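PROTEIN DESIGN WORKSHEET
SECTION A - STRUCTURE
LENGTH: 252
TOKENS:
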């Protein structure tokens, strides 16, 4: 009988849950961070942590494997009775540096197992990150910039008159004639140009490498990118890379 277990990746904005039965990913869900009540130290014994798990039919004894980039949220889960914490040193990618986000490390490891190496992962989450490994699973390097939502939010929060922009589903006019579309144009075309430049530079060195877009905004980024550039067969989307990292790290 397959063993039930939960993967929990705590990202900057949300909890990312994966429910596995053995090596089969049954379902994924995203939930919000636990708030002040959890941070005051409420433990598993009063049901606070159990209540945060999306699947109520999961037994109390179900193991949770935790990877987190938010220490305050990590601390809340340390009282869970069947918790195992995954750390950077557990991930078999050579050359990982100590401050690298474990979500990036899990995603690039998962990509290497599913799509082969070398591989470049573009994670379109709260931050937009680029992470690449070579055929020997050595970290080539990467880059980090504010993600799509964060760029829109930053303008409205730090200017007196600019409105909160919305992410378009189709390309906005490049030369906009109103403020809202001007914001969309500036952010969207700059991000897409940056993605194209990173992909071209990567493929100049690793010509046959897959490039995989993941993260919460992966679908919209892929959709918008496909409207500006011919989509190559080695450019893919896969929103579950982090969970493939968990799975291949924890072979049951």
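SECTION B - SEQUENCE
RESIDUE ASSIGNMENT:
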């Amino acid at each position: 009988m397959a063993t039930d277990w939960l993967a929990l990746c705590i990202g900057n904005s949300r909890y990312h849950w994966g429910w596995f039965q053995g090596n089969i990913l049954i379902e994924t869900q995203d939930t919000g961070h636990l708030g002040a009540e959890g941070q005051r130290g409420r433990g598993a014994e009063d049901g606070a942590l159990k209540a945060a798990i999306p699947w109520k039919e999961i037994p109390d004894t179900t193991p949770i494997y935790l990877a987190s980039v938010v220490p305050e949220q990590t601390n809340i889960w340390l009282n869970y009775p069947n918790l195992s914490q995954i750390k950077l040193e557990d991930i078999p990618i050579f050359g990982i540096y100590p401050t690298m986000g474990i979500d990036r490390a899990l995603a690039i490891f998962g990509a290497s197992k599913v799509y082969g190496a070398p591989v470049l992962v573009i994670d379109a989450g709260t931050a937009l990150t680029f992470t690449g490994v070579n055929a020997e699973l050595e970290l080539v390097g990467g880059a980090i910039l504010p993600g799509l939502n964060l760029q829109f939010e930053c303008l409205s929060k730090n200017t007196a008159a600019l409105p909160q922009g919305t992410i378009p589903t189709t390309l906005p006019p490049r030369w906009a004639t109103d403020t809202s579309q001007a914001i969309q144009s500036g952010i969207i075309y700059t991000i897409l140009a940056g993605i194209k430049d990173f992909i071209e530079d990567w493929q100049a060195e690793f010509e046959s490498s897959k490039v995989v877009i993941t993260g919460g905004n992966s679908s919209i980024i892929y959709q918008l990118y496909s409207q500006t550039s011919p989509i190559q067969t080695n450019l893919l989307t896969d929103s579950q890379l982090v969970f493939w990292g968990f799975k291949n790290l924890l072979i049951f």
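SECTION C - NOTES
The domain at 92-241 is CATH 3.30.420.40 (Nucleotidyltransferase; domain 5).
Residues 179-205 form the longest helix (27 residues).
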